[in-house]
Automatic annotation (TrEMBL):
<feature type="binding site">
    <location>
        <begin position="15"/>
        <end position="20"/>
    </location>
    <ligand>
        <name>substrate</name>
    </ligand>
</feature>
<feature type="binding site">
    <location>
        <position position="150"/>
    </location>
    <ligand>
        <name>substrate</name>
    </ligand>
</feature>
<keyword id="KW-0812">Transmembrane</keyword>
<keyword id="KW-0456">Lyase</keyword>
<feature type="active site" description="Proton acceptor">
    <location>
        <position position="102"/>
    </location>
</feature>
<dbReference type="InterPro" id="IPR017939">
    <property type="entry name" value="G-Glutamylcylcotransferase"/>
</dbReference>
<dbReference type="Pfam" id="PF13772">
    <property type="entry name" value="AIG2_2"/>
</dbReference>
<dbReference type="InterPro" id="IPR013024">
    <property type="entry name" value="GGCT-like"/>
</dbReference>
<keyword id="KW-1133">Transmembrane helix</keyword>
<keyword id="KW-0472">Membrane</keyword>
<feature type="transmembrane region" description="Helical">
    <location>
        <begin position="191"/>
        <end position="210"/>
    </location>
</feature>
<dbReference type="GO" id="GO:0003839">
    <property type="term" value="F:gamma-glutamylcyclotransferase activity"/>
</dbReference>
<protein>
    <recommendedName>
        <fullName>gamma-glutamylcyclotransferase</fullName>
        <ecNumber>4.3.2.9</ecNumber>
    </recommendedName>
</protein>
């Protein structure tokens, strides 16, 4: 690797994307335009597709967290993988628009936190000083599977960017919550859950999305309310809906 990580030019960041933000479709939708993209590995961080989200709809999203001693056996067995992704060179304002649109809206310790890391290119000896979105592992659970839609989008981005085939195959083998596999009772539960929780979630979510597009950070009370409703929804699912209608986070 290069002796010193390459720093971004003034006014830019190297943004390490590892989930759906690798995909061209997401870049178009979120309006960020990389001037350079390099496939990289993030040493000492594990990738997870089990970050809490919305049961029955989008049960989980991708995140990364630091690898600890307890993870070594899982890494050796292939149950965990060191995070791979792509470093995008983008203007700082475009990166902040991404941060403001993610869960937590960039407010420290609510959900995604911005960390500065060193990532290593896979096709050269270069390394980069990059920023990455990280959550505490306490916000993940193996009971929460990503939706088929979301996982397919992440896989599509990995293929588009040319991530290693072994890594892509590992992604394809991750369990996912597939609407096609819902039972009739789970479908009823999905509608009932949606009626109870989706309207208020969207009511809180739309202002944060609008502000993010204007490159304005939403006031902290908005993401706190969104996360509060999400916790309430998970509680209702775990102690009620799951037992009546079946799980909205996995197919086990």
């Amino acid at each position: 690797m290069s002796p010193q990580p390459i720093k971004p030019p003034s006014g830019y960041v190297f943004y390490f994307a590892y989930g759906s933000n690798m995909a061209a479709a997401t870049m178009v939708r979120r309006q960020f335009h990389p001037e350079k993209s390099v496939v990289c590995e993030l040493p000492n961080y594990a990738i997870s597709f089990n970050m809490f989200a919305i049961p029955y709809v989008e049960p989980a999203f991708a995140t990364v967290y630091p690898i600890e001693d307890q993870d070594r056996a899982s890494l050796e067995q292939g149950l965990l993988m060191t995070a791979h992704g792509v470093v995008h060179l983008i203007p700082h304002n475009e990166f902040m628009r991404i941060v403001y649109s993610e869960i937590g809206n960039g407010h420290k310790d609510l959900a995604y936190n911005v960390e500065t890391v060193t990532v290593n290119a896979l096709d050269s000896s270069e390394s980069y000083e990059a920023v990455v979105l990280v959550t505490p592992r306490e916000m993940t659970s193996s009971d929460h599977w990503p939706s088929r839609r979301y996982l397919d989008l992440c896989i599509s981005g990995a293929v588009e960017q040319g991530l290693p085939q072994k890594y892509v195959e590992w992604m394809k083998n991750q369990p996912c919550y597939d609407p096609a596999n819902k039972t009739t009772l789970q479908s009823v539960g999905s509608y009932a859950f949606g009626i109870c929780f989706i309207p208020i979630t969207m009511l809180l979510f739309f202002p944060t999305t609008y502000l993010a597009k204007k490159e304005i950070q939403a006031p902290a009370f908005l993401p706190m309310c969104v996360l509060g409703v999400a916790r309430l929804g998970r509680g209702a699912h775990n102690y009620g809906f799951k037992h009546v209608f079946g799980s909205g986070t996995n197919h086990e």
